[in-house]
Write a structure and sequence with these properties.
The protein has about 190 residues and is α/β, with parallel strands linked by helices. The protein is about 30% helix and about 25% strand.
Length: about 190
């Protein structure tokens, strides 16, 4: 098998060298109005890995990226009360996994409780590679499928324009659910 990052021979999805390299996070904070979104990588660093979500092997890529980032976050983030982690649109489709659910699951701890299948988009339009104007014209139109209690961390794979995260935040707040911040693998604003 080959490492999906450098293509060296390995028995795992990433070789030891790439695990070490990907373990060196490029932490970032993006402010979307008054909403903070924390990221672990720059988009350019893991762009090719993020595209794996469109393939079955992406399950293993996202599990490893989650272990190197989200899992480590939960170990040093200790809030005073229990928080909920909600993945944006974590429906399972053709490839039988949800990349955002994998990320949210990695946050599970004594202080963070992931809730799956709670927040889904009614508009199924794909945003990948689309402009801000397209995203504004084609809102996600989120709906709640389960009861969600405050406070909440929003989880997604990438923050590009921030429109999906902001729309989810506004929707949850209209439903009287406090959203603390967003947590993503990568920030596309390098």
């Amino acid at each position: 098998m080959r490492c999906v990052h450098c293509h060296a021979f390995t028995l795992l999805i990433f070789c030891d060298k790439c695990c070490e390299e990907l373990g060196e996070l490029s932490l970032g904070i993006r402010k979307l109005d008054d909403f903070k979104v924390y990221s672990f990588y720059k988009y350019s660093e893991i762009k090719h890995l993020l595209y794996s979500k469109h393939h079955f092997y992406g399950y293993f890529v996202f599990k490893m990226l989650a272990r190197l980032s989200f899992h480590r976050f939960r170990e040093f983030f200790t809030p005073n009360s229990t928080l909920n982690a909600i993945a944006l649109d974590d429906r399972v489709e053709n490839m039988l996994y949800s990349h955002s659910a994998i990320l949210a699951h990695s946050l599970k701890s004594a202080h963070i409780r992931p809730i799956f299948g709670a927040l889904h988009a009614q508009n199924r339009v794909k945003y990948s590679g689309k402009s801000l104007e397209f995203r504004r014209k084609n809102k996600r139109n989120f709906k709640l499928l389960k009861p969600v209690f405050s406070p909440v961390i929003l989880v997604d794979d990438i923050v590009t324009t921030g429109s999906s995260l902001l729309e989810a935040k506004e929707f949850l707040e209209k439903n009287e659910i406090q959203v603390l911040f967003g947590l993503v693998l990568a920030d596309a604003k390098d």
